[in-house]
Specification:
The protein has 106 residues and is mostly helical. Helix 1 packs parallel to helix 5, helix 1 packs antiparallel against helix 6 and helix 2 packs across helix 3.
């Protein structure tokens, strides 16, 4: 069953993937047919994503829907899903840490 915490995880994962792809909120919002402010509210968990929006985002980010529910899968997609050792910037590490903390998973 989904709850408010799940919404925050979805939004945080969308934001993480968007940031790792170096996409602006405005550009992603345009793809979804919504305003930048509305996308910001969605990324913060204040507004729900529709299935249609998640499908569009999955196509945009070239990932499966599960990436929006699991921070580990989102991180795997962000690094290309190759399993290769990639170097992260300090900013990348802080964003990953924030996602893990929000997910409540060790």
């Amino acid at each position: 069953m989904y709850d408010v915490d799940c919404l925050e995880k979805i939004g945080a994962n969308v934001k993480f993937l968007r940031t790792m792809r170096k996409l602006r909120q405005q550009d992603v919002a345009q793809t979804l047919g919504i305003s930048q402010t509305h996308l910001s509210n969605m990324e913060c968990g204040r507004v729900k994503f529709s299935l249609k929006q998640l499908l569009r985002l999955a196509n945009l980010f070239d990932c499966q829907l599960e990436c929006f529910f699991d921070p580990r899968q989102a991180a795997n997609v962000a690094v290309g899903g190759t399993g290769q050792d990639k170097r992260y910037t300090q900013s990348d590490m802080e964003l990953l840490l924030t996602l893990v903390k929000k997910s409540g998973q060790p």
